[in-house]
Amino acid sequence: ASTLKEAVAEAIPKKQERLKALKAKHSNTSLGDIKLDNLLGGMRGLKVMLWEGSVLDAERGIAFHGKSIPDCEKELPSAKDLGLKGKEMLPESMLWLLLTGEVPTADQVRGLSAELASKGKLPSYVEKIIDSFPKTLHPMTQFAAATAALNHDSAFSAAYTKGIKKAEYWSPTFDDSIDLIAKLPAVAARIYYNVHGKGDGKQAIDPNLDLIGNFSNMLGYGDSVGMTDFLRLYIAIHGDHEGGNVSAHTSHLVGSALSDPFLSYSAALLGLAGPLHGLANQEVLVWFKGMQESIGQEASDQQIEKYLEDTLASGRVVPGYGHAVLRQPDPRFSALSRFYEQTPELRDQPLVKMVQQVSKIAPVVLGRSNKIKNPFPNVDAASGAGLTAYGMTEMNFYTVVFGVSRALGALPNLVMARALGLPIERPKSMSIEALEKSLK
Ligand code: FCX
């Protein structure tokens, strides 16, 4: 296949066959019991959703079609492989892997980058909508609203209105998804310019650059190979984290009503904007700043330990630590830490050093609590420090960068859900009275 769409078209019939075989053999096979604890406990652990891109293991962390982050770093075409400045894997390569299960060639990725560049410019009505937002409106709210507004030109919506057949749903869903992935950097950069005055808010997209090379230019960091490469790694590894997390599940749920990809992903962004999910990367920096003000930049291990204890005693969460599924340090955290250690200009940055120092002390303090199930750092503990070190000090923009990334996982899943004909989601809810009656 020379294009991603052709590769997806080849992958779909094989998946349809495998699903058909599973259904034929196992439609009534149990995947586990539902306990009251599951119902009251945010449905943790219940296997109730099909999600093709990645699987999260509590001990080993994320695997994208079976490939760990270090595997992807080795195998996926990187900036270097495409002759660009930098060396990190490209989010386009990750997108190809997530959609098809295959590692693309450098040429395939080059073609995808060019396609994304050709679709990256915003229609002027969306620019006007973004420009009309008050600067004080949180960038995530702006991001979600602008993303929803892009559905004005949705291919899926138009095709559905015309009466497209169910077997063909995936095709305009794919077209919208690529269109949205191409435009998210421009939406984000326009918001960054309006709120923080950096970059130029215009979209001078270079057709020979990759998605993140162009994103970095639009944000005003294009001259920094370090920042551009950091963003590539950041965006590649934040893309997918199986289906049950709030943003991924939201896009799946909203998409199951056949809302188009722009609406589905806008909803996902609103979930990502919550402090227990994507906003945690902003919260981590707020927490670090508070700590620095309270105990200084060169704090000792004992002072940090005490600060962590005080945070817990005050009833707040320590942002960047804990996870609903993981029971080991997050491999995404480890990947960012490795990047910091291997990058001389970052290694000695105060905030980067603090991230590393806290990541050794916090698991001990959190581990003493008998309720916290995972005392280890998650990705958000590390991500803001690199952005800050490269000059992006505006914490309320960090979740937007996460939001540019999560589309790489959420949108392929919408394409697959439609290719596999998955139905509208409609789990059963229970009232206390209904539970009392049925559990007697
Ligand atoms: N600090 C303090 N308390 C914590 C904690 C933390 N980092 N992590 C968990 N706990 C508490 C929970 O608040 C809960 O307390 P409660 O019983 O009084 O309500 C108890 O420990 C049990 O929670 P647990 O089962 O370990 O964790 P959950 O699955 O309920 O929640 C999150 C998982 C991630 C929400 C939780 O660990 C947390 O709030 N962490 C801080 C916020 C954060 O970093 N979120 C980002 C996660 C992720 F990587 C992402 O989505 O980006």
Automatic annotation (TrEMBL):
Classification via PROSITE patterns: CITRATE_SYNTHASE (PS00480)
UniProt GO MF annotations: acyltransferase activity, acyl groups converted into alkyl on transfer
Keywords: Mitochondrion, Transferase, Transit peptide
Organism: Pseudomicrostroma glucosiphilum
Family, per entry: Belongs to the citrate synthase family.
InterPro entries to which the protein is assigned, alphabetical: Citrate_synth-like_lrg_a-sub, Citrate_synth-like_sm_a-sub, Citrate_synthase, Citrate_synthase_AS, Citrate_synthase_sf
Pfam families: Citrate_synt
Record NCBIfam families: PRK09569.1
Record-level GO cellular component terms: mitochondrial matrix
Protein's cellular compartments: Mitochondrion
Name used for this protein in its record: Citrate synthase
Gene Ontology BP terms: carbohydrate metabolic process; tricarboxylic acid cycle
